[in-house]
């Protein structure tokens, strides 16, 4: 596939995910009795429009998302069905619904993808590499299932990769053995050199089990845990950004995502060709996984308490409710407007910085 195709895929992907997000706001607003003035697919000039009752449904020229315009959403309105006049709990549901739809979209994509899984690695220990020094009842045994590493729950084999890589020479393990949970604090399972298939590699020394005949329930659980893990990865990434473990250069925007889609699709095609598979199907599955991953990322990021995002509006909803409780009057909505406007400018500036960084990375800088 050419880069033009990947760019079109990225535009379509973001457009669909944003439209799905806005549909979540729209459908809950309608169900909870809010007045919706317009529901739009796309942005920019109107191509098609139709008025049905109080709501105008529009198709706009630019396929980069959409919006749900509710009465009283950005200011005071005298309409009793306006956003600002509806009960707080209903406003909360409408604000959360967009992220819920993105989360659900990611989960459904993962369910479809993992329904085709034939086998996968588990968190159970199937054996040890030659020279592993910590075998036995006081250490690890074949059949043990690793439940947590340094306080982080382990659901998937990929969790072991993540938290082993973040651990030092010692780690706190919780394992399940014969139905009993065993705590191994400060367990000295340092990464060291082992000979694997004639090559010297640095590993932790355990061999993981494989579920070769997963049931439908296994596949559904695999889909769910991959979804939950994606949420956790967002939080881990945000934590690393705050602590300085990673910098802005490690972030990716739209340009970086296009590059990622191209790289992952090309790699999937190469692997499929080498194993006699269908390269086009492999590329499609790889892209679908990225779409699911980004959908869940959008769900989490939109709920962060940042102005101009749904999470920022939820924060103002809570602050406004507390203010009204003590001051016996509503917080002037213009203050929320000021903060959201400032937050929007900051977000746009951040997007420009990340885009510039993506361009530099494309040229190897």
Largest sheet: 4 strands, antiparallel
Element pattern in H and E: HEEHEEEHEEEEEHHHHH
The residue-averaged pLDDT reads 88
**Ends distance:** 25 Å
Q: Indicate the proportion of strand residues.
A: 15-25%
Structural class: alpha+beta
Task: State the helicity in percent bands.
Answer: 40-55%
Radius of gyration: 25 Å
Count of individual helical segments? 8
Strand order of the largest sheet: 5-4-6-7
General form: globular
What ranges have pLDDT less than 50 throughout 5 or more consecutive residues?
Answer: none
Commentary on this structure:
It is built from 8 helices and 10 strands. The strands form 4 sheets. Strands 5-4-6-7 form a 4-stranded antiparallel β-sheet, with helices on one face. It is globular, with a radius of gyration of 25 Å. Helices cover 52% and strands 22% of the residues. Helix 1 (3-31) crosses helix 2 and helix 4 (216-243) crosses helix 6 (279-302). It is an alpha+beta fold and 365 residues long. The chain starts with a helix and ends with a helix.
Brief summary:
The chain is α+β, with helices and mostly antiparallel strands and 365 residues long. The chain is built from eight helices and ten strands.
């Amino acid at each position: 596939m050419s880069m033009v195709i990947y760019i079109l895929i990225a535009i379509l992907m973001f457009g669909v995910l944003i439209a799905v997000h806005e549909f979540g706001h729209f459908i809950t607003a309608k169900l909870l009795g809010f007045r919706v003035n317009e529901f739009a697919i796309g942005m920019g000039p109107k191509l098609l429009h139709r008025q049905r009752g109080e709501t105008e449904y529009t198709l706009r020229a630019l396929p980069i998302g959409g919006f749900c315009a509710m009465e009283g959403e950005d200011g005071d309105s005298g309409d009793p069905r306006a956003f600002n006049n509806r009960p707080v709990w209903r406003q909360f549901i409408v604000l959360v619904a967009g992220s819920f739809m993105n989360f659900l979209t990611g989960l459904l994509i993962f369910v479809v993808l993992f329904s085709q899984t034939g086998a996968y690695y588990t968190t159970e220990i199937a054996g040890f590499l030659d020279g592993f020094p910590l075998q036995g009842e006081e250490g690890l045994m074949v059949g043990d299932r690793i439940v947590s590493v340094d306080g982080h729950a382990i659901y998937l084999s990929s969790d072991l990769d993540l938290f082993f890589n973040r651990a030092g020479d010692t780690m706190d393990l919780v394992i399940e053995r014969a139905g009993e949970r065993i705590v191994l604090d400060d367990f000295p399972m340092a990464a060291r050199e082992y000979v694997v298939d004639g090559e010297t590699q640095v590993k932790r020394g355990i061999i993981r089990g494989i579920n070769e005949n997963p049931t439908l329930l296994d596949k559904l659980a695999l889909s769910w845990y991959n979804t939950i893990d994606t949420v956790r990865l967002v939080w881990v990434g945000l934590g690393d950004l705050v602590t300085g473990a990673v910098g802005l250069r490690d972030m990716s925007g739209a340009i970086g995502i296009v590059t990622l889609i191209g790289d992952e699709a090309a790699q999937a095609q190469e692997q499929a060709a080498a194993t006699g598979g269908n390269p086009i199907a492999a590329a499609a599955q790889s892209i679908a996984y990225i779409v699911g991953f980004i959908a869940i990322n959008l769900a989490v990021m939109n709920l962060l308490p940042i102005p101009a995002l749904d999470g920022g509006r939820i924060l103002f909803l809570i602050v406004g409710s507390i203010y009204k409780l003590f001051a016996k009057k509503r917080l002037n909505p213009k203050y929320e407007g000021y903060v959201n406007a400032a937050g929007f400018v900051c977000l746009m500036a951040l997007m420009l910085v990340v885009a510039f960084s993506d361009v530099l990375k494309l040229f190897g800088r």
